[in-house]
Design brief:
ribonucleoprotein, Ribosomal Protein L25, Chain P, alpha+beta, 202 residues, Large ribosomal subunit protein bL25, RNA Polymerase Alpha Subunit, Chain A, domain 2, 7-stranded mixed sheet
Length: 202
């Protein structure tokens, strides 16, 4: 999995007034959990754009000058109206310790149902995986080739190599729904089959 480096500085004061001053200065207050000690730090808002505003998944190197930590994004708190980032939580990575994170779903193949006029619906754009840091996948591949019209692809049908999927077995990843045009054509064909044949007179 690709990694992004975020440069920041450790912060001493974590009270409301100090946090507000940070935000006013264009900085984002952050917390790193999972290690021996919780680390409070701050980084410029622009440092997070390649981590947050992307469909891809990344691990993170948090560079605080004298200290560096490998981590994954755990949670983002955003303003309910403006979507402005208010706070970010990270979780520290260790080579021998499994970690949980969300990764994108990558659709591959061509569905028979779609070729027949159906519409592909992706129910899950991201899936939660658990693995050692070295085994974290960039994405989970969803092969839709076998899907006929009306079929569903369940999470149990996905290939998992050195990682676990943390979803119930009945989770639908993708499905091929009957399109309106296909449904209308089927209804018209059914009506035509029921209609009495014309031109037959005794």
């Amino acid at each position: 999995m690709k990694s992004i480096t975020i440069k920041g500085s450790e912060r001493e004061s974590v009270g409301k007034s100090a946090t507000k001053a940070l935000r006013n200065a264009g900085m984002i207050p952050c917390v790193l959990y999972g290690g021996n000690q919780t680390v409070h730090f701050a980084a410029e808002e622009g440092a997070f754009k390649n981590l947050i505003y992307t469909p891809n998944a990344h691990t993170v190197v948090i560079d605080l000058g004298s200290k560096k930590f490998e981590a994954v994004l755990q949670d983002i708190q955003q303003h309910p109206v403006t979507d402005k980032i208010l706070h970010i939580d990270f979780y520290q990575l260790f080579d021998d310790k499994e970690v949980t994170m969300e990764v994108p779903v990558k659709v591959v193949g061509t569905s028979k149902g779609v070729l027949a006029g159906g519409v592909l619906r992706l129910n899950q754009r991201k899936l939660k995986v658990k693995a050692l840091p070295k085994d974290l996948p960039d994405f989970v591949e969803a092969d839709i080739t076998p899907l006929e019209m009306g079929n569903k692809l369940y999470v149990t049908k996905l290939e998992t190599k050195n990682f676990k999927l943390l979803h119930p077995d009945n989770t639908v990843v993708a499905q091929v729904k009957i399109s309106r045009a296909a449904m209308k054509a089927a209804q018209e064909a059914a009506k035509a089959a029921k209609a009495p044949a014309k031109g037959k007179k005794k």
